[in-house]
Amino acid sequence: MTILIAEVPPIRAEDLTPQRPWTQRPKSFWFAALLGIFIPLLILGGLYATTDIAPPLLLIVFYLPLQLIGAAIAAYSTKGKHGIADSSIIVFAVGATILSAIVLGSMLVTIIVRGFEALRPSFIFQNSVYISPSTPLEYGGIGHAIVGTFLIVGIATVISVPLGIATAVYVTEVRGRAVPYVRFFVQAMSGVPSVVAGLFVLTVFILTGVLQQSALAGAIAYAILMLPTVARTAEEVLRLVPEDLRTGALALGSTRARVVLNVVLPAARTGVVTAMLLGIARVVGETAPLLLTALKNDQTVTNPISDPISALPTFIFDNVAQPYPDAVTRAWGAALVLMILVSVLFTITRFLSARKPRK
Amino acid sequence: MATLTWKVLPVAPDTPIRDLSKSKKANRGDRVFNTTITGAAFTSLAVLAGITLFLGAKAVPVVQDQGIGFLTTTIWDTTGVPPEYGIAGMLYGSVLIAFIALFIAVPVSMFLAVFMVFMAPVRVSKLLTNLVDLMAAIPSVIIGLWAFYILVPPAEGWQDLLNQYLGWLPLFQNDSGNFTGTPFVAGVVLAIMMIPIVTSVTAEVLKRTPPELINAAESLGCSMWTMLRYVALPFGRGGIIGGIMLGLGRALGETIAVFFVLKIVYDINFFNIIESGGGSVATLIVAKFGETSGDFEVDVLLAAGFFLFLMTLVVNAIANLIVRRTERLKG
Fold it and tell me: Which of A18, A54, A228 sits opposite B157 (nearest CB)?
């Protein structure tokens, strides 16, 4: 007698990934979909050319229903009535995506186009002493604001990164009894509005006379906003450090402090850098706290405690609603510089976190 | 032989490790290390307690002086004897524009997230994820600048149309013909700032729908809508609601972008969302800070900040509780 043992093939990861059968479409679908898009667009174009109905009205009252009907007919003709609901979702989803893309694209394009009008070496390196809103663009610049941003963000980083990493180490390495509470407080802190962080520094340090309105005061407000971002990101990356490394180091006789300092943190160093950069990106454009704690200054200030100081966001804020076109162009120029800073930080963090950890 | 492979799960870092640091045998360096780290871990608590105590200490005399009228009236009389202040219009205005923003941002974010997770090819989806994150990273002052010059002029036309065709609804009434600085525009700007937050949370949640469930739904012949309606959305409901609440918290506290597009008026603008003038606590603080007349008005602004803080704290706490509860249920 033979006993048959069923061979069960191993379950592979790709077997579990969704197959998305609605993406497998017959050729007739493409024909119908093309017509379903083309005809409403044609009617839209025709109405736009022949009548003077306002474009938003045209899009929402005429085009959207037509597009929904067109998509529904296309879906019905190829997939039957079950396709109709899907077709509406597709119309809305594509619409939402296009809408968001238009908003983002409009922002980026205007920042770049309007910002380039102001950009020149003097704009980057000079400060704004003797510059009034009506001064032509050839004179003056945002050098002082760039220095201010670097100074304030630098100090904020020095304050918040060690505290944030310590918080993450407490949660993942020390694992004390208060872990749930610490995590709850960090989350609650991440919801503190930036203006409230500014008010807090104002009450505690400035109204009491401990500090002047200065880079340090602004940096403390920034640090409050940075801390939760750094702590949460650092916590996530420390969790990725394999448990074997910790137990291995402990088995070799390391103390717990050594395990953290010499094994866990070095193993997670890219992640820790990412946490720092994300924290910086979170605060670098914050305006409200600086309006309360750092005020503004047309001169280049390098002393963090002596004088009020301008930063890029506060410089933009001051120039947005000026009645002079050159002042507004300066605001766009500063916005471009700030946006470049943000994009650089953004790209580096993406690059760092995209690298696969070595196994 | 039957071979069944199991995915080996790493030991969850939450596993308690026997804490030897407090025993006398523990290494001295370790004890110092643990104490330092534990101390630093409580910075967040210290800051939150500090905000509550210090701003609260400023708010108490203001509320004593002004009575409950500080929260229920709409007077802003700095020169009167005695001066009178009331932030009801601002508190209501903050909530109103936040809800206008929710009304616009939530549908857009849901559909955008569905497109990213279930429709777009992997590459497009990755690109969109990056773009959404980039959108979230744009500083609010730049969004304010863009809104002031690029969004507001056409938005006046949109509001005019709304008034023309839907003006019989009280919501879209406008008798003045002035469409600048309306709660509607402020809501649109906040919506633009909320979309990336709500979208990324929603997409994250939808991505975590177990593939077995999706595959099961598909093998039963579900269309995409049925799958979304009965599998993905119920599964992610908690996380999505939490994400929306996080966006709401952010909208309530947003200051600068609103500053450029909303005309602050002290009277409550109840529901005429396309009538010029509205309120926002956060924006009020920044708008008034530069022109305060004396220390008491600064205290009034600090008190306003305290109530703003309480409001966002409650919203965020609820959001986090919802997110955490759903995470725990799924274990």
Answer: A54
- The residue of chain A nearest to residue B166, with distances taken between CA atoms, is A57
Sequence-distant (≥ 6) Cβ neighbours of residue A178 within 8 angstroms: A170, B38, B41, B42
B-chain residues near A258 (CB < 8 A): 29
Give start and end residues of each alpha helix (H) in chain A: 13-16, 27-50, 55-57, 64-79, 82-118, 121-125, 143-169, 179-190, 194-201, 215-239, 243-251, 256-258, 265-267, 269-283, 288-293, 312-320, 325-354
Instruction: Report chain A residues whose CB lies below 8 A from the CB of B290.
Output: 291
Cα–Cα distance between A5 and B37 in angstroms, integer?
56
Residue ending a domain, among A71, A102, A118, is A118
Of A65, A83, A118, the residue that ends a domain is A118
Q: How many angstroms separate the CA atoms of B287 and A293, rounded?
A: 14
% pLDDT > 90, chain A: 60
Task: From A200, A166, A61, A303, select the one nearest B50 (Cα to Cα).
Answer: A200
The pTM (predicted TM-score) of the whole model is: 0.90
For the segment A75-110, what is each residue's pLDDT rounded down to a tens digit?
A: 888 777 878 888 899 999 999 999 999 999 999 999
Phi, psi of B184 (to 5 degrees): -60, -50
Predicted confidence band of residue B3 (pLDDT cuts 50, 70, 90): very low
- Which residues form the domain of A197? 143-354
Q: What's residue B22's pLDDT?
A: 55
Residue with tokens 């950069």: A277
- Superfamily of domain covering B69-330: MetI-like (1.10.3720.10)
Report CB contact under 8 Å: B146, A256: no
Per the CB < 8 Å rule, is A291 touching B289?
Answer: yes
Q: What is the pLDDT of residues A243-258, one digit of tens each?
A: 999 999 989 988 889 9
CB contact under 8 A, A188 and B317: yes
Residue A172 contacts B where some CB pair is shorter than 8 Å = yes
Residue A150 placed within a domain? yes
Distance from CA of B96 to the nearest CA of A (A): 17
pLDDT > 60? residue B17: no
Q: pLDDT of B311-324, one tens digit each?
A: 999 998 888 888 77
